[in-house]
Amino acid sequence: MRIIIMGPPGVGKGTEAELLVKHYQIPHISTGNIFRELFTHEDSEIGKIAKSYIDRGELVPDDITNQIVCQRLSESDVQKGFLFDGYPRNIEQAKALDRFLEEKNWKLDAVINLTAKTDLIIRRLSGRRVCEHCGAVYHVENKKPKIDGICNQCGGKLIQREDDLEKTVKRRLRIYTEQTKPVVGYYEQSGSIIHVDGGRSINDTHHDIMKVLGE
Ligand code: AP5
Q1: CB of 179 closer than 6 angstroms to any ligand 1 atom
Q2: pTM check: above 0.85
Q3: E-state strands within 62-145
Q4: Which residues are catalytic?
């Protein structure tokens, strides 16, 4: 299965992606997670550059992002399929992905576009907490950890992402409208996109996605 999950920041892409990759047993390729991994755990030049863009809520330049994706697609585990979360994020990246897939003679099975109202998205982002150690995602109301402020999976401390602060969230939403929304139109033209209401509960949204994927 080769899937893309897209939608505005905070709509629940990462949360739904986790359930899908578990079901299909495929790798979860989140460009946001790859960048955070690079700047959190490694002394990487690319990580430092990416952080400077991410903290401002701007997109990391295409040459860096496409290079990272191309490299990831050359690893052996993607032979069985993959799920992209947060890529492609503009038309240039969508065209680059088309080229990468064509070179391998691969086709996408589905592009899932999650939608939700802006006020709900803002509530989700302002309440999101992530484990500073393993990156697991929680929410102060919708997905609470067993012990307040502590990750269920590794016992790490839960923190707020730098780019979830209010003024950065507004910029991310603006950039989504200007640069990423046109990608929805790009996939609409090829008839491969499926729109799913991401404003429902985590399980209801998952159920809707599985239904449209024919499961
Ligand atoms: P990235 O990490 O991809 O962030 P994003 O797209 O802005 O998406 P988020 O991670 O904020 O939200 P999400 O939709 O995954 O929601 P989540 O499931 O966590 O990118 C970060 C930055 O990296 C970008 O701004 C950019 O700078 C850079 N970058 C990444 N990819 C790039 C690219 N291709 N090109 C250039 N730059 C790139 O859910 C949010 C919260 O809501 C959580 O707390 C969750 O528990 C809760 N929640 C989720 N679903 C539900 C539900 N159904 N009901 C109730 N609560 C829910």
Answers
A1: no
A2: yes
A3: 82-85, 110-115, 128-131, 137-139
A4: 13, 89, 128, 161, 172
Tokens (6 digits) for 183: 């990608």
Give per-residue pLDDT as tens, 189-212: 988 899 999 999 999 999 999 999
Q: What is the pLDDT of residues 89-108, one digit of tens each?
A: 999 999 999 999 999 999 99
CA–CA separation, 64 vs 70, rounded Å?
10
Q: Is 65 in the pocket of ligand 1 (CB under 6 A)?
A: yes
3-state helix, strand, coil in the chain (%, to 5): 50, 15, 30
36 lines ligand 1 (CB under 6 A): no
Query: Which of 210, 183, 186 lies closest to 196, judged by CA?
Result: 210
How confident is the model at residue 138, as a pLDDT?
Answer: 96
**Longest distance between any two alpha carbons in the chain, whole Å:** 48
